[in-house]
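Form 7-S
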Amino acid sequence: MNTALSNSIDLQSPEYRLEAIPLVLNRHKIVFSKTTAAKLVGGRGKLGKLIEQGRVRVEKKASGKQNGKWYCNGGDVIRNMKL
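Output:
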């Protein structure tokens, strides 16, 4: 009896593929703007709370202006997306 096969992960299973999405986004360094990220997680307030809790990583880049662009980690946003 081969027990190794029964404990192996089915790479084609829907559960595995859903859990792999944030990993792929992180690997390819996919980021969302603040506006897009807020729409996906359920609003600006919710996004702010997720950033404070450390559940969504964000990088704010100021390009010589007072207001800088926010780059929210794509994998983090997808993990916390409102369904």
